[in-house]
């Protein structure tokens, strides 16, 4: 039996030339070895070479971006994701990763533009819409934040979305509207009554309306059957009923004089 004498370098060259898809596995294996041996710069250089040669394996792209982020090179990681989002704008995960990188670098204008464009392309993607609503809230664009959350609620109502809507109103000092949003959530999602009612109680408390907060907790206490939850509610009600103790008066200074 005659066998071709083959070295490792010759085998690698053969695979890269004749089996381009399998070549990605070689890049992955070698880069993993570099990472394990703490030679991150070499791993980055190798994976960058792969992508520069029009490599298309998505997992290697993600590996390279992660290595950049581990090194704090967010700009380079963002540049990678920008290229991939341009090629695959429908990939929500990539869009959200790029948005996060923009946030990390304080590039809120780029983040906002990216999310707005992506939300237009995928108007029923609730994750994108909620991320966009949060960004509007941070920017103080309350009308847009409210409109966007309402779109999400219309698509897929969940308890935390009603809480988000209520917070948007509350931050604008619109307590009545905030409470109405939570009541709407309770009506549509009865299983979320406890959580949404607790949110109402918290808002009353933050506005200094202890009596209303305590009354609401009392109503919840009557409805719950869970002994641990009952105990928790009782403690909260008891705490609201306790009066704040006045600060102790400062001791009067001693009169100056000679010691006997």
Give a description of the structure.
- This protein is an all-alpha fold and 260 residues long.
- Among the domains are: 10-72, Serine Threonine Protein Phosphatase 5, Tetratricopeptide repeat; 157-239, Tetratricopeptide repeat domain (Serine Threonine Protein Phosphatase 5, Tetratricopeptide repeat), CATH 1.25.40.
- 74% of the residues lie in helices and 0% in strands.
- The chain is built from 14 helices and no strands.
- The chain has helices spanning 8-18, 20-36, 40-52, 58-70, 74-87, 92-104, 108-121, 126-138, 142-155, 159-171, 175-188, 193-206, 210-223, 227-241.
- The longest helix has 17 residues, at 20-36.
What are the key terms here?
disordered C terminus; 260 residues; Serine Threonine Protein Phosphatase 5, Tetratricopeptide repeat
SSE map:
Layout: H1 8-18, H2 20-36, H3 40-52, H4 58-70, H5 74-87, H6 92-104, H7 108-121, H8 126-138, H9 142-155, H10 159-171, H11 175-188, H12 193-206, H13 210-223, H14 227-241
Helix pairs in contact: 1-2, 2-3, 3-4, 4-5, 5-6, 6-7, 7-8, 8-9, 9-10, 10-11, 10-12, 11-12, 12-13, 13-14
User: Which whole number gives the mean pLDDT?
Assistant: 88
Low-confidence stretches: 256-260
Main CATH class of the domain at 157-239: Mainly Alpha
Number of strands: 0
Largest sheet: none
CATH superfamily of the domain at 157-239: Tetratricopeptide repeat domain
Written as H for each helix and E for each strand, in order along the chain, the element string is: HHHHHHHHHHHHHH
């Amino acid at each position: 039996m005659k066998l071709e004498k083959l070295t490792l370098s010759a085998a690698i060259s053969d695979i890269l030339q004749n089996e381009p898809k399998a070549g990605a596995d070689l890049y992955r294996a070698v880069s993993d070895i570099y990472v394990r041996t703490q030679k991150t710069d070499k791993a980055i250089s190798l994976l960058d070479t792969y992508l520069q040669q029009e490599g298309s394996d998505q997992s290697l792209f993600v590996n390279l971006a992660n290595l950049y982020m581990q090194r704090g090179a967010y700009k380079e990681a963002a540049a990678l994701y920008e290229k991939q989002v341009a090629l695959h704008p429908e990939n929500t995960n990539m869009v959200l990763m790029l948005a996060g990188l923009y946030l990390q670098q304080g590039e809120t204008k780029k983040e906002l533009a990216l999310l707005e464009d992506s939300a237009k392309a995928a108007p029923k993607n609730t994750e994108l819409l909620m991320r966009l609503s949060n960004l509007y809230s941070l920017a103080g664009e309350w009308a847009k934040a409210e409109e966007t959350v309402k779109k999400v609620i219309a698509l897929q109502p969940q308890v935390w979305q009603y809480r988000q809507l209520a917070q948007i109103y509350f931050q604008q000092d619109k307590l009545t509207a905030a409470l109405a949003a939570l009541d709407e959530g309770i009506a549509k999602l009865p299983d979320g009554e406890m959580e949404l009612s607790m949110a109402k109680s918290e808002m009353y408390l933050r506005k200094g309306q202890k009596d209303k907060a305590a009354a609401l907790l009392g109503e919840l206490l009557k409805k719950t059957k869970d002994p641990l939850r009952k105990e928790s509610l009782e403690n909260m009600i008891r705490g609201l009923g306790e009066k704040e103790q006045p600060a102790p008066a400062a001791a009067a200074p001693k009169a100056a004089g000679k010691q006997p």
